[in-house]
Amino acid sequence: MSTPNQALALAALNHQSNLTKPQGSLGKLEELAVWFAARSNSAIPGRLQPAIVVFAADHGVVAEGVSAFPKEVTGQMVANFVGGGAAINVLAREVGASLSVVDVGVASSYSTVVTSGAQLFRVPVRAGTGNLRVEPAMSEPECHKAWSIGVGSAQEGFIRGKTLLIGGEMGIANTTAAAALICALTGIEPEEIVGLGTGISATSREHKVQVVKDALVRARAAGAVSAKDWLMHVGGLEIAALAGFYTGAAEAGIPILLDGFITTAAALVAVKNQPRVADWLLASHVSDEKGHRHALAALQLEPLLALGLRLGEGSGAALTIPLIQSALALHREMATFSSAGIATKE
Ligand SMILES: O=C(O)c1ccc[n+]([C@@H]2O[C@H](COP(=O)([O-])O)[C@@H](O)[C@H]2O)c1
Ligand SMILES: Cc1cc2nc[nH]c2cc1C
């Protein structure tokens, strides 16, 4: 596991204090520049090379009526990513990030056309998970396989010289799995965590709360203790891949920008499994999904933005890239008091 470089953080902090502005006047942007310096090879890091990897999979718990959309939408959206028409395609183009999609367990068939929308890797571990209310979402070997695919994606980012990794997800019903994981790993009650996902009614949400409660009772009775036990019992294939992706990024020493509710659940799994993954995490935004702020608080993360988003796909993280690039450009390009011949504070 890589560790941030505190000497570089100190040098970056010192550099910030020489820039032509009252100290602290750029608020969180100053903290961001110092945070990235400690996670790069220079006190004055260059422009970030971001990569977005969207992991897609289906969820057996969709049979419980916990989503506003049918399960076929997962595969249809994968085709949309490849075609270049999804929100994340637009945002990745806008911010100059590479985009790939990894099918780790889409259940329905979908066809893709040859386009430059996103590179697709079809490596399904199984055709969607089991219904976590009544059975384990996946077996231990399946969980391990999905996790390893995520680690491999992060390693590929390292090989390609990427300096910021963003995991996105697509999976109808995955807010149910994410909620169950967050409850299991934080001890917070489902009533506080379960939200409306793609837009279910208040009545359907009550049912979703019960589904999560049943899943937690079942998994606990089956002996779930560790983060990986819980992942196997109530998680999802794309969530397992994301947890592996974050672990691989931390091992390679690449900063991670989290997206919404589901990616934060995956980060919780990764951190409970290996606490030093936390050193590499940054939260882009707080989603509108009810329990997201609790999950971020459990990771001691403060989101940069609050825009009422609840899309997933890595969209909130992508939106934050220009802010981060600006923080780094200011750190790199601003004049110092001495170079500009400006008097410092009395
Ligand atoms: O990222 C979020 O905070 C978020 C919040 C609500 C929904 N989503 C997306 O919506 C899908 C899951 O919603 P649901 O209702 O099917 O569980 C999945 O594809 C996610 O990417 C994402
Ligand atoms: C259309 C659609 C797009 C999505 N992107 C991420 N989750 C999604 C869920 C739906 C339903």
UniProtKB/TrEMBL annotation:
<dbReference type="InterPro" id="IPR003200">
    <property type="entry name" value="Nict_dMeBzImd_PRibTrfase"/>
</dbReference>
<dbReference type="GO" id="GO:0009236">
    <property type="term" value="P:cobalamin biosynthetic process"/>
</dbReference>
<comment type="pathway">
    <text>Nucleoside biosynthesis; alpha-ribazole biosynthesis; alpha-ribazole from 5,6-dimethylbenzimidazole: step 1/2.</text>
</comment>
<dbReference type="InterPro" id="IPR023195">
    <property type="entry name" value="Nict_dMeBzImd_PRibTrfase_N"/>
</dbReference>
<feature type="active site" description="Proton acceptor">
    <location>
        <position position="313"/>
    </location>
</feature>
<comment type="function">
    <text>Catalyzes the synthesis of alpha-ribazole-5'-phosphate from nicotinate mononucleotide (NAMN) and 5,6-dimethylbenzimidazole (DMB).</text>
</comment>
<keyword id="KW-0328">Glycosyltransferase</keyword>
<protein>
    <recommendedName>
        <fullName>Nicotinate-nucleotide--dimethylbenzimidazole phosphoribosyltransferase</fullName>
        <ecNumber>2.4.2.21</ecNumber>
    </recommendedName>
</protein>
<dbReference type="InterPro" id="IPR036087">
    <property type="entry name" value="Nict_dMeBzImd_PRibTrfase_sf"/>
</dbReference>
<keyword id="KW-0808">Transferase</keyword>
<dbReference type="Pfam" id="PF02277">
    <property type="entry name" value="DBI_PRT"/>
</dbReference>
<dbReference type="GO" id="GO:0008939">
    <property type="term" value="F:nicotinate-nucleotide-dimethylbenzimidazole phosphoribosyltransferase activity"/>
</dbReference>
<comment type="similarity">
    <text>Belongs to the CobT family.</text>
</comment>
<dbReference type="InterPro" id="IPR017846">
    <property type="entry name" value="Nict_dMeBzImd_PRibTrfase_bact"/>
</dbReference>
<keyword id="KW-0169">Cobalamin biosynthesis</keyword>
